[in-house]
Amino acid sequence: MNYKALFTDFDGTLFANGKISDTNIQALNAARAAGKLVVFCSGRSWRSLAYYENLLGFDNPGTYGVAFNGGVAYAYTENGHEVLYRHTLETATAHEIIGKVKALALPSVKIFTYGENDDMFVEDGTKDAAPFSESRQIPITFVKDFSEVTGGIAKVVLFGENNELKKVAAQLADKHESVSSAAYLLEFLPPNVNKGTGLSFLAEHLNIQLSEMIAMGDEANDIPMIKKAGLGIAVANAIPPAKEAADIILTESCHEDAVSVVIHKYLL
């Protein structure tokens, strides 16, 4: 099969040990030089991805990305960064979720939100906010209360211990669907938004068949795009449900240049 595009998850797939390896960078550049489309498809905000896209030279015209787990698709054009679509949570819904989470009073759980312009907000006194902000390469705006955040909200993110996040997901499941992007993260997204919708949108936008696309990832939030693509791949460090959804399970993990392996075996 002549695959034309690779949609790769970021954290836990391409990004490992705090960086993108030189081997993966060389493979990404080789794929682009061969005329293949490479798209970062992440739960991160586009501003966070833009930091790395700039470092890699992936911010030039003809480059695309998907952020917020499918909530935003964007392109780089001659005029810079251009949002192709954006889905947000209704403000009232986001505040309802936040209120329910606070009512559970789980000690390890911290709440973050992203505004419609991709700004990150936390309430005053939130512990561990600075390290989380630094890991995402975007600044935090502190507010007295989340009610100060108005307009569309990209997503509500919970940071905490996995057993407590599971309690939140179970308690809110009857009305608010959530997805895990890491063992320590739980995210509430706009309705009908996932990485699969981002992949499908760009496939139609660029006139590429889904059968001509590869998608690879490691977490629950990657499953929709793994299932949607013509070739769905799970890295060796993927969680069991992601492996079950995949057509191929790699023997290489994110720490062993899994993206490079896929590019050289299936894309070039």
Describe this protein with a few key phrases:
268 residues; alpha/beta; six-stranded mixed sheet; 33% helix; globular
Describe this structure in words.
The protein has 268 residues and is α/β, with parallel strands linked by helices. The protein is globular and about 50 Å long. The model has no long low-confidence stretch (mean pLDDT 93). It has helices spanning 22-33, 46-56, 91-104, 129-136, 162-172, 195-205, 223-228, 240-245, 258-267, and strands at residues 5-8, 37-41, 63-67, 72-77, 80-86, 110-115, 120-123, 140-143, 153-159, 178-182, 185-188, 213-217, 231-234, 248-249. The chain starts with a strand and ends with a helix.
The average pLDDT is 93
SSE order: EHEHEEEHEEHEEHEEHEHEHEH
Strand content: 25-35%
Spatially, the strands of the biggest sheet line up as 5-4-3-2-1-12-13-14
Q: How would a textbook summarize the main sheet?
A: 8 strands, mixed
Low-confidence stretches: none
Total beta-strand segments? 14
What shape does the CA trace take?
Answer: globular
Number of discrete helical segments: 9
Radius of gyration: 18 Å
User: How does the helix and strand content classify structurally?
Assistant: alpha/beta
Helix content: 25-40%
